[in-house]
Amino acid sequence: MTFTATAPTPSSTLPRRPLRVAILGATGAVGQELLQLLAERSFPVAELIPLASPRSAGCSLAWEGRDHTIREASEAAFEGVDLVLASAGGSASKQWAPVAVQAGAVVIDNSSAFRLDPAVPLVVPEVNPEAAFGHAGIIANPNCTTILLTVALAPLAARRPLRRVVVSTYQSASGAGARAMEELRRLSRTVLDGGEPVSTVLPHSLAFNLFLHNSPLQANGYCEEELKMVNETRKIMGIPDLRLTATCVRVPVLRAHSEAVNIEFSEPFPVAEARALLAKAPGVELIEDFEANRFPMPTDVTGRDPVAVGRLRQDLSDPNALELWLCGDQIRKGAALNAIQIAELLCQPAATVSGGGA
Fold it and tell me: Are strands 162-171 and 243-250 parallel, antiparallel or unpaired?
């Protein structure tokens, strides 16, 4: 879908006052994380408007010591709203994001609805923060695996040009939502009790199992998730011809994704130099103990902000390539945290924001 603003283009920044903030998809896993992070990071909220499906409308949601009534999304619900954090899926975003912009709000959308629209910025604040200020009312939050990958790529690409990236992902149940996480818990107990796990949320049981990502397969043999990584990384990094290939796998982990990444540069890149860059890069935590064979694990990042990177090494097959391993919380940095960091950017004057690592 190509987004065309039907209202006067809003200011590229948010008002310098407490904001009326709507959460579209407030009852989902990412919606709940958004609420938690708004409180944790003391985001300037004057009024919270939780929005969800009709079946949740009228229910009560507790936030910051108060009960808030969940409302059904409607044109009236966006009146007077400054900021919409949307995480209710692509169809809901396509329906309601233009309505919210028409009402004068800025929308930060967590779905794939607008990510590849050339008129909509696709932003990772550690990588391309300046892009956020080029919006016409909607800013897209990238795919979770793409966010984690670009946070690690950006400081390296700023030093030496990228030529090719090969990535394999190990994606947690949280990427499929709260119901998938609960199913993994339930079916794991079933297997431990000697039963036969029967999945109703995912196409196959994740209990003591893994399978290739279940997003729709395309004519070229890649699944939709893999092509998201290719196309979104190119857009965020500003390298439209970047050679990137991905294989995405769903694994029995609750809520943190992992990625094995091979990065080819235009020339050799000393491991020590790359390690020093990553150690001081924004949003990155280096976890490496070669003597103990201890590197990032999903449990290191669950419920935490950083993308953990480690096991950085020279590719034995290519003098211009490095290998690394990373883990990041899919719900947090892979979704909710990135969205709120974008909102925090917009609370600053555009002139004060410097470029990212790439």
Answer: parallel
Tell me the pTM: 0.93
> Could you give the residue numbers annotated as active site?
144, 257
In the chain, domain spans: 19-141+336-352, 146-330
Q: Could you give the 3-state DSSP secondary structure of residue 199?
A: coil
CA distances from 278 to 50, 159, 306, 327, 356 (A): 38, 11, 12, 14, 13
Q: Domain 19-141+336-352 belongs to what architecture?
A: 3-Layer(aba) Sandwich (3.40)
Which DSSP symbol is given to 332?
I
Q: Which phi and psi (to 5°) does residue 316 adopt?
A: -65, -20
pLDDT means per 10 residues, the chain with 358 residues, are 37 88 94 96 97 91 94 95 96 96 97 96 97 96 98 98 98 93 98 97 97 95 97 97 98 97 98 98 98 98 97 98 98 97 91 61
Class of 146-330 in CATH:
alpha beta
DSSP state of 131: G
Amino acid at 31: G
